[in-house]
Amino acid sequence: MIRFDHVTKVYDAPQHPALSDIDLEVDRGDFAFLVGASGSGKSTFIRLVLREERPSSGSVHVAGTNVDKLPSWKVPLLRRNIGVVFQDFRLLPNKTVFANVAFAMQVIGRSRAMIRETVPQVLETVGLKEKGGRMPHELSGGEQQRVAIARAVVNRPAILLADEPTGNLDPETGRGIMEILDRINQNGTTVVMATHDDEIVNRMRRRVIELDHGKVVRDERGGEYHAVGDQLVLSAGNQAIAPFDSEEDEL
Ligand SMILES: Nc1ncnc2c1ncn2[C@@H]1O[C@H](COP(=O)(O)OP(=O)(O)OP(=O)(O)O)[C@@H](O)[C@H]1O
């Protein structure tokens, strides 16, 4: 579903590369944590998938398409297939919860009837059925993140990218967010989540890809890690990653 083929990304030479010779695949339906200290390259990975950045060398494939080769008019089509959630929620402050989620459908031309039907369903799946009329500032941080998740998945993307989605939340609220991401993954969406949060990684026991100074230093299924300050030490996982599978899907 996502394939990095010897990807290197250098922002400003002669700085060390933000990502260096990354060669990995995230299969359809996978749940993968991207872990690593600040500056290790997690957000760069996510930006490359979205084609917000382009590789300095190598290629990034999403659903079988080399995203670097996409003409710019097709980039919105790529992004329609990818939901994104950030640490700071990024809701539209002057719109209600319902309108924030509806907006994601409006921009791709969905009908009012479809929006009226779909938005309440999605709000229900994130536990906000009763809060469609609230404004973002009337919600807790955890609730705001649920709205952001609802907005990210309302168009049923194949992939959900989450960049530190629990970073601004207390542990209990973060666990609630993880339950929702887990459910979304169980329904078939491929999830890639960048995080520093060792408690969450150790509880979920999913694939863990560790970056260190832009290099993959560990890639394990059922992995865990223990953060020591900004130093992350991964312990052994229990399963090897399956070899690259060359499935090519139409975008
Ligand atoms: N737009 C940019 N221009 C120049 N350098 C950048 C840019 N974005 C990131 N970098 C550099 O690339 C490296 C990787 O940054 P990146 O944001 O991908 O790390 P990260 O693991 O997501 O960090 P954090 O956990 O702090 O968000 C860092 O050295 C950073 O300073």
Automatic annotation (TrEMBL):
Protein family per UniProt: Belongs to the ABC transporter superfamily.
Q: Does the keyword Aminoacyl-tRNA synthetase apply?
A: no
* Residue span, ABC transporter domain: 2-238
PANTHER family recorded: CELL DIVISION ATP-BINDING PROTEIN FTSE, IMPORT ATP-BINDING PROTEIN
Q: How does it assemble?
A: Homodimer. Forms a membrane-associated complex with FtsX.
Ordered alphabetically, the record's keywords are:
ATP-binding, Cell cycle, Cell division, Cell membrane, Membrane, Nucleotide-binding
Protein name per the record = Cell division ATP-binding protein FtsE
The scientific name of the source species is Galactobacter caseinivorans
Cellular component GO terms held in the UniProt record: plasma membrane
Q: What membrane topology does the UniProt entry give?
A: Peripheral membrane protein
Annotated InterPro entries: AAA+_ATPase, ABC_transporter-like_ATP-bd, ABC_transporter-like_CS, ABC_transpr_LolD-like, Cell_div_FtsE, P-loop_NTPase
Name of one Pfam family that matches = ABC_tran
Q: What Gene Ontology terms describe what this protein does at the molecular function level?
A: ATP binding; ATP hydrolysis activity; transmembrane transporter activity
Q: What does this gene product do? A: Part of the ABC transporter FtsEX involved in cellular division. Has ATPase activity.
Q: Where in the cell is it found?
A: Cell membrane
Q: Name one GO biological process term.
A: cell division
Record Gene3D superfamilies: P-loop containing nucleotide triphosphate hydrolases (3.40.50.300)
